[in-house]
Amino acid sequence: MHKTIVAPSILACDFSRLGVEVERVTAAGADWIHCDVMDGHLVDNISFGPAFVEAVARHTALPLDVHLMIERPDIYVPRFVPVASSISVHVEAHHDVSASLKAIRAAGKLAGLAISPPTPLERVKPFLGEFDILLVMTVNPGFGGQPFLPEMLGKVAEADAWRGEWNFRIEVDGGINAVTAAECVSRGASLLVAGTSVFRATDVAAEIQLLRDAR
Sign of the C-alpha dihedral, residues 128, 82, 84, 80? Predict the structure, then answer.
């Protein structure tokens, strides 16, 4: 089994204090930093771009997990390669999925394939073996602070069943806290993206440890 990785999402941080916020979760024991890039097309919100992610990188040595919630990830992947450790693209986006995943791996990064709640898991099956991370959205993407969708647990468990033949991590993103993390981990997730529950915690280090210990 994979070791549990906790990746706080900077979408939930105070952007006016970006450097301080990134350093705060780094010091508190985060494993990765998750960066949600939105273009206002694939999802109904606009967040930030490559320059912002580069600014994050200047305040931490942790791996940056870049989630491209954008319509044409194939065009923008090269712009995130210099600072990202992993890059996830959506199966629903307008691009050649295999080509995008191949380009990410060719750049020496972990390739992730993300899937939104309304999309059947079967959509990612043709790409098994081409990605290192399967990112199962546990809220409808676009905005932080949404409640966890428990019906996504079945999707996590179904993906876990595929790992007898294929080796990949299952990442969950949306409404993740100590309770929902345990539900996801028990079904096979090992990469936990948590925004609000970490950045608004009274004790950030304790919250990260709760997530890491969730079973």
Answer: negative
- pLDDT tens per residue across span 3-24: 999 999 999 999 999 999 999 9
- Rounded distance, CA 38 to CA 48, Å? 7
- Has 203 been annotated as catalytic? no
Beta-bridge partners for 7: 193
* CATH code, 5-213: 3.20.20.70
The active-site residue, picked from 39, 65, 74, 173, is 173
Q: What b/e readout covers 77-91, taking b as 16+ CB neighbours within 10 angstroms?
A: beebbebbebbbbbb
**Does the pLDDT of residue 150 top 70, yes or no?**
yes
pLDDT digits (tens, 9 = 90+) for 63-92: 999 999 999 999 999 999 999 999 999 999
pTM for the whole structure? 0.96
Residue 107 has pLDDT above 90, yes or no: yes
State the angle between helix axes of 153-161 and 178-185 in degrees (0 to 180), rounded to the nearest 10.
30
Catalytic residue among 31, 36, 39, 65: 36
Query: Domain segments of the chain: what residues?
Result: 5-213
Mark whether 44 is an active-site residue.
Answer: no
